[in-house]
Design a protein that fits this description.
Strand content: 25-35%
CATH topology of the largest domain: Alpha-D-Glucose-1,6-Bisphosphate, Chain A, domain 4
Largest sheet: 8 strands, mixed
Helix content: 40-55%
CATH class of the largest domain: Alpha Beta
Distance between the termini: 157 Å
Number of strands: 10
Order of helices and strands: HHEHEEHHEEEEEEEHH
Shape: elongated
Number of helices: 7
């Protein structure tokens, strides 16, 4: 068999357990070195096992680094979560404050919108629910029967009005609301509502007596306090608790005005429906729309129309005494609502006079409160 017939191992046929020589130098004799040109040094090749082992070690090192980074990230995440948990209540409080502030502003704007609508309504309100049409003829007896026949309905309507008007108010806390406006027909109008507690006063009758005194001598008090000379032209009675009053007043600016009003009054020692079982006083007045016996004089006098209701009752309220202790006491409260109209359609008023009259509509009501206070506390 020749050499060419011997099997030759292929370089690629290397078993996994064979040792592979990579670039390894072989020893040479002196003659071979001298005869041949110098060649590049050969290196020993690494075994597959060694290469894979080194790669594994590198991967394990990278894994250790990644695991360390993961632990660090977990610690940071846990710290951030704890911090967020601690900050959450404060953040929620701030958000709640902002939300409530926004809601409060919206609510306030809504209330202002409602107030504007109510003001618009008031500016055209020339009547109140307890106002009644009053016509008086020339026959004296018929006049008295007419006024007497209106009493019960008038008192009832006035009482129910006060109940509704004060439904959402503190009945013992001082309160005042006053609006002035010019009606569509040109009348100068004033709508007033107030609650006046008389601290230290526990007798309802005492305040009612002061009101009786004022209405019986109103012309004297108006003249004395305002300087407007006022006289009572007529004073008629149609029965108990019913009176008709005609007053004429000469104002400081030279203008004259007249008033023709009917007043109904009632005092009850015990009233369960409106007086909470205690004493209760009621005063309500309305103007005469047409009086055949004593007609208005629109060409010479302004017409002063008043529709009003006043109630007097005791209320329980709490206050701090001189020792700083919260105690409950009884206090008498005067509640008043009135609509005043100053009619001047047949009289041409100078601009300054008209302005003065618009500003002073309702000043007689101030005189009433001042007078009652003086009488009660003197």
């Amino acid at each position: 068999m020749s050499d060419s017939d011997l099997p030759v191992a292929s370089p690629s046929q290397v078993e996994a357990h064979d040792v592979v020589m990579v670039d390894c130098e072989t020893p040479k004799t002196h003659s071979e070195s001298a005869d041949k040109a110098p060649t590049q040094a050969r290196r020993v090749k690494k075994t597959t096992y060694r290469v894979r082992k080194e790669e594994k070690e590198l991967l394990l090192q990278e894994l250790d680094v990644l695991q360390a980074q993961l632990k660090q990230l977990k610690r940071q995440a846990a710290g951030s979560a704890a911090k967020s948990q601690q900050e959450r209540p404060s953040v929620q409080r701030e958000l709640s404050k902002e939300f409530l502030a926004g809601a409060s502003k919206l609510q306030q704007l809504s209330l202002v919108n409602i107030q504007s609508a109510l003001s618009s309504y008031v500016s055209v309100q020339q009547h109140v629910p307890f106002e009644m049409w009053i016509y008086l003829g020339t026959d004296v007896e018929e006049r008295r029967q007419t006024l007497a026949g209106l009493k019960e309905r008038k008192l009832r309507a006035a009482q129910l009005y006060v109940v509704e008007r004060t439904r959402f108010l503190d009945p013992a806390s001082p309160f005042a609301e006053h609006s002035r406006f010019v009606a569509q027909n040109g009348d100068f109008c004033a709508l007033r509502f107030d609650i006046t507690p008389y601290e230290g006063i526990s007798s309802v009758k005492k305040v009612c007596d002061a009101l009786y005194h004022y209405f019986s001598h109103m012309e004297i008090w108006v003249t004395d306090i305002l300087g407007d000379v006022t006289i009572r032209e007529d004073d008629d009675s149609a029965g108990k608790g019913i009176s008709q009053n005609r007053l004429v007043s000469s104002l400081m600016n030279g203008v004259e005005l007249e008033m023709n009003n009917v007043m109904y009054t009632e005092f009850r020692e015990h009233d369960d429906e409106f007086g909470d079982g205690g004493a209760y006083g009621l005063f309500t007045t309305d103007f005469v729309d047409k009086d055949e016996l004593v007609p208005y004089n629109p060409h010479e006098r302004l017409r002063y129309d008043v529709t009003a209701v006043l109630t007097v009752k005791a209320q329980r309220c709490k206050r701090l005494n001189t020792a700083g202790v919260l105690v409950e006491e009884q206090v008498v409260v005067l509640t008043r609502s009135c609509l005043i109209k100053l009619r001047h359609e047949d009289i041409a008023l100078p601009i300054e006079t008209a302005h003065e009259l618009r500003e002073s509509v309702g000043k007689w009501g101030d005189v009433m409160l001042q007078t009652v206070r003086q009488i009660v506390y003197r």
